[in-house]
């Protein structure tokens, strides 16, 4: 199945699972060596529609928080999946949905890994780094922060709130 992912985190996950990703956003930059040969069809909020159509995807993957509503309303692909991940607890279910849509058992295995880590009494502090493709780069601050402002974008400035995936991990 030919998949175009307009969600950077899903692009990385799909590639990890061996899915045939034929299109991505310019923000889908991981894993670097694997995405460099996959055409970028724009950003998460803007698309090069002609390039997207030339890729002839079977499935277009969007996210409710990441992409604009009109992207789901157009017939860019025979199948469109729009995820809505608000917390770490939502990830296993979305992985299972994608596993069924794509017929990919590796995604189902990843869902089980997430469930195991999430069910651990030590989650998230001691086990969050076990979630592959998420936070291998995390490092403990030198002193415990009292408040945290997580800035994800500049121009315009954007942050994350507690009611998001990033907020649930932090």
Structural write-up:
There is one protein chain. Helix content is 34%, strand content 12%. It starts with a strand and ends with a helix. Strand 1 (3-5), helix 1 and strand 2 (21-23) form a beta-alpha-beta unit. Strands 2-1-3-4 form a 4-stranded parallel sheet, with helices on one face. A two-stranded antiparallel ribbon has the order 5-6. It contains 7 helices and 6 strands, in the order E-H-E-H-H-E-H-E-H-H-E-E-H. The protein is globular, with a radius of gyration of 16 Å. With 170 residues, it is α/β, with parallel strands linked by helices.
Which features characterize this protein?
6 strands; two-stranded antiparallel ribbon; 170 residues; four-stranded parallel beta sheet
Mean pLDDT comes to 88
> Helix/strand/pairing class, anyone?
alpha/beta
What is the string of SSEs from the N terminus onward? EHEHHEHEHHEEH
Largest sheet: 4 strands, parallel
The count of strands amounts to 6
Q: Between the first and last Cα atoms, what is the distance in angstroms?
A: 35 Å
Which stretches are poorly predicted, pLDDT < 50 over at least 5 residues? none
Helicity range: 25-40%
Rg, nearest Å: 16 Å
Shape: globular
Total count of helical runs of at least 4 residues: 7
Query: Could you tell me the strand content as a percent range?
Result: 5-15%
């Amino acid at each position: 199945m030919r998949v175009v992912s307009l969600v950077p985190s899903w692009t990385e996950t799909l590639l990890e699972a061996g899915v045939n990703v034929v299109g991505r956003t310019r923000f889908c930059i991981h894993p670097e060596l694997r995405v460099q040969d996959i055409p970028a069809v724009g950003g998460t909020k803007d698309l090069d529609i002609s390039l997207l159509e030339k890729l002839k995807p079977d499935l277009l993957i969007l996210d409710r928080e990441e992409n604009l509503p009109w992207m789901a309303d157009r017939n860019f692909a025979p199948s469109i999946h729009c995820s809505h991940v608000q917390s770490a607890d939502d990830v296993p279910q979305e992985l299972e949905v994608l596993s069924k849509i794509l017929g990919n058992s590796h995604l189902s295995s990843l869902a089980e890994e997430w469930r195991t880590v999430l069910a651990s009494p030590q989650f998230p502090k001691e086990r969050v780094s076990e979630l592959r493709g998420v936070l291998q780069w995390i490092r403990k601050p030198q002193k415990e922060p009292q408040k945290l402002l997580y800035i994800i974008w500049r121009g315009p400035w954007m942050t994350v709130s507690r009611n998001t995936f990033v907020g649930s991990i932090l």
